[in-house]
Design goal:
The chain is mainly alpha-helical. The chain folds into two domains: 19-54; 67-155, no CATH class. It is 59% helix and 7% strand. The chain has six helices and two strands. The protein has helices at 20-50, 56-63, 67-76, 81-89, 96-111, 138-155; strands spanning 118-122, 129-134. The longest helix has 31 residues, at 20-50.
Protein backbone atom coordinates (compact mmCIF):
# COMPACT_ATOMS: atom_id res chain seq x y z
CA UNK A 1 0.00 0.00 0.00
CA UNK A 2 2.97 2.26 -0.47
CA UNK A 3 1.95 3.60 -3.86
CA UNK A 4 3.92 6.60 -4.97
CA UNK A 5 1.87 9.76 -4.97
CA UNK A 6 2.00 12.22 -7.79
CA UNK A 7 2.97 15.73 -6.59
CA UNK A 8 -0.22 17.55 -5.57
CA UNK A 9 -2.03 14.27 -5.03
CA UNK A 10 -3.13 13.19 -1.57
CA UNK A 11 -5.17 10.17 -0.42
CA UNK A 12 -7.54 12.40 1.62
CA UNK A 13 -7.89 15.23 -0.86
CA UNK A 14 -11.62 14.60 -1.21
CA UNK A 15 -12.15 15.49 2.47
CA UNK A 16 -12.29 19.18 3.44
CA UNK A 17 -9.87 20.35 6.12
CA UNK A 18 -12.64 22.29 7.87
CA UNK A 19 -16.27 21.87 8.71
CA UNK A 20 -19.08 24.42 8.43
CA UNK A 21 -19.38 24.42 12.25
CA UNK A 22 -15.73 25.45 12.56
CA UNK A 23 -16.29 28.27 10.07
CA UNK A 24 -19.34 29.46 12.02
CA UNK A 25 -17.25 29.57 15.20
CA UNK A 26 -14.50 31.55 13.46
CA UNK A 27 -17.08 33.98 12.06
CA UNK A 28 -18.58 34.45 15.55
CA UNK A 29 -15.16 35.16 17.08
CA UNK A 30 -14.37 37.66 14.31
CA UNK A 31 -17.73 39.40 14.82
CA UNK A 32 -17.05 39.72 18.57
CA UNK A 33 -13.60 41.17 17.89
CA UNK A 34 -15.06 43.67 15.40
CA UNK A 35 -17.73 44.75 17.90
CA UNK A 36 -15.08 45.18 20.61
CA UNK A 37 -12.95 47.31 18.27
CA UNK A 38 -15.93 49.47 17.29
CA UNK A 39 -16.83 50.04 20.96
CA UNK A 40 -13.24 50.99 21.78
CA UNK A 41 -13.00 53.43 18.86
CA UNK A 42 -16.35 54.99 19.80
CA UNK A 43 -15.22 55.45 23.42
CA UNK A 44 -11.90 57.05 22.44
CA UNK A 45 -13.65 59.38 19.97
CA UNK A 46 -16.15 60.37 22.67
CA UNK A 47 -13.32 61.14 25.10
CA UNK A 48 -11.51 63.17 22.45
CA UNK A 49 -14.69 65.09 21.62
CA UNK A 50 -15.38 65.83 25.31
CA UNK A 51 -11.74 66.75 25.96
CA UNK A 52 -11.21 64.15 28.69
CA UNK A 53 -8.67 61.38 29.08
CA UNK A 54 -9.89 57.76 28.72
CA UNK A 55 -9.97 56.00 32.08
CA UNK A 56 -7.99 52.85 32.67
CA UNK A 57 -11.10 51.16 34.07
CA UNK A 58 -13.18 51.77 30.96
CA UNK A 59 -10.30 50.83 28.62
CA UNK A 60 -9.71 47.62 30.58
CA UNK A 61 -13.38 46.72 30.32
CA UNK A 62 -13.45 47.36 26.56
CA UNK A 63 -10.16 45.54 25.89
CA UNK A 64 -10.89 42.59 28.16
CA UNK A 65 -7.77 43.15 30.30
CA UNK A 66 -7.18 44.17 33.89
CA UNK A 67 -6.56 47.80 34.88
CA UNK A 68 -2.96 46.87 35.79
CA UNK A 69 -2.36 45.48 32.30
CA UNK A 70 -3.77 48.65 30.75
CA UNK A 71 -1.53 50.78 32.98
CA UNK A 72 1.49 48.65 32.04
CA UNK A 73 0.66 49.02 28.33
CA UNK A 74 0.44 52.78 28.79
CA UNK A 75 3.91 52.74 30.42
CA UNK A 76 5.33 51.09 27.29
CA UNK A 77 4.70 54.29 25.36
CA UNK A 78 7.59 55.88 27.30
CA UNK A 79 10.10 53.40 25.89
CA UNK A 80 11.76 54.08 22.53
CA UNK A 81 10.19 52.27 19.58
CA UNK A 82 13.59 50.89 18.56
CA UNK A 83 13.99 49.19 21.94
CA UNK A 84 10.52 47.63 21.80
CA UNK A 85 11.20 46.40 18.26
CA UNK A 86 14.45 44.79 19.44
CA UNK A 87 12.66 43.12 22.36
CA UNK A 88 10.07 41.60 20.05
CA UNK A 89 12.64 40.57 17.42
CA UNK A 90 14.90 38.86 19.98
CA UNK A 91 11.86 37.07 21.48
CA UNK A 92 12.30 38.71 24.90
CA UNK A 93 8.61 39.55 24.94
CA UNK A 94 6.76 36.26 24.80
CA UNK A 95 4.21 36.48 27.59
CA UNK A 96 2.03 38.89 29.51
CA UNK A 97 4.60 38.92 32.29
CA UNK A 98 7.13 40.45 29.94
CA UNK A 99 4.83 43.43 29.36
CA UNK A 100 4.92 44.05 33.13
CA UNK A 101 8.70 43.80 33.13
CA UNK A 102 8.97 46.30 30.28
CA UNK A 103 6.67 48.62 32.24
CA UNK A 104 8.96 48.29 35.28
CA UNK A 105 11.95 49.22 33.13
CA UNK A 106 10.01 52.23 31.85
CA UNK A 107 9.19 53.32 35.42
CA UNK A 108 12.84 52.92 36.41
CA UNK A 109 13.97 55.09 33.51
CA UNK A 110 11.37 57.73 34.42
CA UNK A 111 12.04 57.82 38.18
CA UNK A 112 15.54 56.41 38.63
CA UNK A 113 14.35 54.25 41.55
CA UNK A 114 16.21 50.95 41.60
CA UNK A 115 13.23 49.37 43.42
CA UNK A 116 11.51 49.06 40.03
CA UNK A 117 14.30 46.73 38.87
CA UNK A 118 15.23 44.82 42.03
CA UNK A 119 13.08 43.56 44.88
CA UNK A 120 15.00 43.44 48.16
CA UNK A 121 14.15 41.17 51.07
CA UNK A 122 15.56 42.61 54.28
CA UNK A 123 16.43 41.12 57.66
CA UNK A 124 13.85 42.17 60.28
CA UNK A 125 16.60 42.57 62.91
CA UNK A 126 19.49 44.40 61.28
CA UNK A 127 17.85 45.63 58.06
CA UNK A 128 20.52 44.05 55.87
CA UNK A 129 19.69 42.57 52.50
CA UNK A 130 18.86 38.89 52.68
CA UNK A 131 17.94 38.37 49.06
CA UNK A 132 17.62 40.48 45.94
CA UNK A 133 15.37 39.38 43.10
CA UNK A 134 15.53 40.87 39.64
CA UNK A 135 12.14 42.18 38.57
CA UNK A 136 13.43 42.76 35.02
CA UNK A 137 15.39 40.04 33.17
CA UNK A 138 19.09 40.66 32.76
CA UNK A 139 18.79 40.05 29.03
CA UNK A 140 16.39 42.97 28.78
CA UNK A 141 18.73 45.23 30.73
CA UNK A 142 21.68 44.14 28.58
CA UNK A 143 19.67 44.88 25.44
CA UNK A 144 18.82 48.34 26.80
CA UNK A 145 22.49 49.04 27.59
CA UNK A 146 23.52 47.87 24.11
CA UNK A 147 20.96 50.18 22.49
CA UNK A 148 22.07 53.16 24.59
CA UNK A 149 25.73 52.45 23.76
CA UNK A 150 24.91 52.17 20.05
CA UNK A 151 22.99 55.46 20.07
CA UNK A 152 25.84 57.21 21.91
CA UNK A 153 28.42 55.92 19.41
CA UNK A 154 26.29 56.84 16.38
CA UNK A 155 25.70 60.38 17.68
CA UNK A 156 29.45 61.10 17.90
Amino acid sequence: MTDKLVPGDHPHQDQPNWTPEEQEELDRIQAEADAQTEALVAYVEECRRDGKRPTDTELAKLLGHSRKEVRDMRELSNLPKEFLDLCFKTDLVHSRGMITQLARLSRYLATGKISHLVERECCPHCGGTLRARHRVPREMLELWDALVDYEEKSSL
